[in-house]
Amino acid sequence: MGEFQRIARLRELFERPSSAVILGIGDDCAVLAPSGRPRVWTVDTAVAHVHFDTRFTSLEAVGYRAFMAAASDLAAMGATAVAALSSLILPQAFSDEELDQLADGLARAADACSCPIVGGNLARGSELSLTTSVLGECEDRVLTRAGARAGDFVYVTGPLGGAALGLRRLSQGVSVGEPDLFARAFLFPRARLDLSRSLAERASAAIDVSDGLLSDLTHLCRASGLCAELELERIPTIPGFAEAAREAGLDAQNLVLSGGDDYELLFTSSEELPTDLGTRIGVPGAGVPEIILRDATGTQLELPTSGFDHFR
Amino acid sequence: MGEFQRIARLRELFERPSSAVILGIGDDCAVLAPSGRPRVWTVDTAVAHVHFDTRFTSLEAVGYRAFMAAASDLAAMGATAVAALSSLILPQAFSDEELDQLADGLARAADACSCPIVGGNLARGSELSLTTSVLGECEDRVLTRAGARAGDFVYVTGPLGGAALGLRRLSQGVSVGEPDLFARAFLFPRARLDLSRSLAERASAAIDVSDGLLSDLTHLCRASGLCAELELERIPTIPGFAEAAREAGLDAQNLVLSGGDDYELLFTSSEELPTDLGTRIGVPGAGVPEIILRDATGTQLELPTSGFDHFR
């Protein structure tokens, strides 16, 4: 198919009715209905060989993950999704069937986020990449990284380390046939838009865990001018995590602290919150260093090298 | 520099005060102030070796052009610019100095469009690419491709073919030292945001000339369910165009009709408009084919193969 036929095909796959959208794919721009609320806006890019490996990630999962990684940033701001644009760079040899698989993954994630894809761009290039721009809307209050205060608790909305473990298992060929919970955490993560409005009311600061707990907590602490003490044993993981990590030859603690790609929300709140909103994993600390890690007995543990820096 | 230092550097280069922006670069999302008006939204991608060649295009021009190509879509909707996100895929070897040059071009174009860059993404990849997402705002009426009616005139806001000729001259080494008008039309095009509000009031339909006159006029005609007759001699060109085309070994007529990259606006209106808004180049035609081309004597001319299809 030519470019214009491919755009027509994507329009078929992506088009959804939405009261927020006056005009979707097909003109120079999408048109969004007026809104009296603050809007949040971000973009995220996934590049072949850097962010995903199609040898053990289906193109559907590539599309799904790319979309969720962008939508997760909306959740971290306490917003709900309005609409998305999807820009694809496709290699010359990329077939129409492959584009359909990629688009299916994007569309499935967009549906799960109630976030219609209203436009985008197709370009040719040597390397597959997906750039997803998402727009969200806040009720009144916008949640940022900067609102945490001394006396708050540190929470996380779900298990960490599972996606990084799943990636390793997939690359080892453990779960390619029948993806297990770990592989699914990597292949089909969910942006926590289900919790974002509740957190906008009750959290003081938030960030999504994309780079890894220590890296993202450091961003939140710096933005808030705060330190944090984490209690390692409190950090939730998927059942069977420690054993599966051992099997894969990985250090469970390192996965939990620096794994990334889980897209749970890390947030602070002065309230004691119900467990369906989040698990308390720490408290504000005093002075430098920014993050202190302790075991259940209160003994301070050494921090591993944190996060993932694309340009390090 | 590492990823986070590079983001801090880009923040320095891009940050501008704007009443439409509550929060710029630095959190999970940018935050935009509420607005009671319809907003238009689009994205455009420029890929090395496909859309630009750094052997004869400075990185500053690469950034400038990439931004203007996206902003031009706002102009085509009759909108003014609100803000932009810039996503870059950078090769491993891309230096901090190169990033500065690229960002300077982006920032210069953003300033020329009064469109602050409020966020983006940095990723590593094998091939340089720039994906620019822009958000604009309409007064009340949104201009689309679909509003042209029988009885309208066809206009263009400025000279066509100059950018394609400039590209050829640059690739031939003619204007690398001191870019002439043609090279400048390619390297530093301007999105016609200066005219967009006037056109929103007076035009019936519009599109920007990015792929080439015939290709883009076909889109407008199809969306409006209309045909068009163009008069070749009326289409404006940069002074000296025909001679420079001959020098470069190119067919002037083909450049004007299919050149692309000029980012002037092609629009229709039922009014006779002042020449500072646009030059009348045609009238609605009758029936199929969609576009008829005539010379000054009224003789029908053959149409060249139109436009540029990335996937043809």
Tell me what you see in this structure:
The structure is a homodimer of 312-residue chains. The first copy, chain A, is α+β, with helices and mostly antiparallel strands and 312 residues long. Chain A is 32% helix and 23% strand. Chain A contains 9 helices and 13 strands. Chain A has helices at residues 3-14, 59-76, 96-112, 162-171, 181-187, 193-202, 213-224, 241-247, 252-258; strands at 21-23, 30-32, 39-47, 80-90, 117-124, 129-137, 153-156, 205-208, 228-231, 265-269, 279-284, 291-294, 300-301. In chain A, the strands form 3 sheets. In chain A, strands 8-10-7-11-9-12-13 form a 7-stranded mixed beta sheet, sandwiched between helices. Chain A has a 4-stranded mixed beta sheet with strand order 3-6-4-5. In chain A, a hairpin with a 6-residue loop joins β1 (21-23) and β2 (30-32). The longest helix of chain A has 18 residues, at 59-76. The two termini of chain A are 40 Å apart. Mean pLDDT of chain A is 93; it is low at 307-312.
